[in-house]
């Protein structure tokens, strides 16, 4: 799979962040990027013959073969650009490469967080929802 190269978003993100009149106590405000596509294998049983009724009248069908196909689907994880960091984000005891800054691209489970309708196409997520930072 060809990796998308993302240009440095920090300048644009800082500009956008300066126009957002909110400070977040516990949340990161992020702009989700397009879904990441991954290839997954799906296996489905292949029916053999017609359903047959047993002595109890229950119809059953034999499945001796399995058909496997590869499909391209959306990943369970999503990339996003950080627009705002929490006010209470503890950076004192962190190393420089551990700190998440405005403009960084983070990875989080797509089902976490909440959509934040006061800023178009944005979502709020907690620090523990972030599984990786793209460097």
Descriptive labels:
mainly beta; 135 residues; six-stranded antiparallel β-sheet; elongated; two-stranded antiparallel sheet; 1 helix; 8 strands
Work out the number of β strands: 8
Strand order of the largest sheet: 6-7-1-4-5-8
Helix content: under 10%
**First CA to last CA: what distance?**
19 Å
* Oligomer kind: single chain
| Low-pLDDT residue spans | none
Main structural class = mainly beta
Largest sheet: number of strands, sense, barrel closure: 6 strands, antiparallel
How would the global form be characterised? elongated
Average pLDDT, rounded to a whole number, is: 85
Could you tell me the radius of gyration in angstroms? 23 Å
Q: Number of DSSP helices?
A: 1
Give the helices and strands as they follow along the chain.
HEEEEEEEE
Estimated share of beta-strand residues: over 45%
Report a brief summary of the structure.
The protein is mainly β and 135 residues long.
Characterization of the model:
By secondary structure, the chain is mainly beta. It is elongated and about 70 Å long. The protein has one helix and eight strands. Strands 6-7-1-4-5-8 form a six-stranded antiparallel beta sheet. A two-stranded antiparallel ribbon has the order 2-3. The protein has one helix at residues 10-18, and strands spanning 27-32, 37-53, 59-74, 77-84, 105-109, 114-115, 123-126, 130-134.
Give the helix/strand layout.
Elements: H1 10-18, E1 27-32, E2 37-53, E3 59-74, E4 77-84, E5 105-109, E6 114-115, E7 123-126, E8 130-134
Antiparallel strand pairs: 1-4, 1-7, 2-3, 4-5, 5-8, 6-7
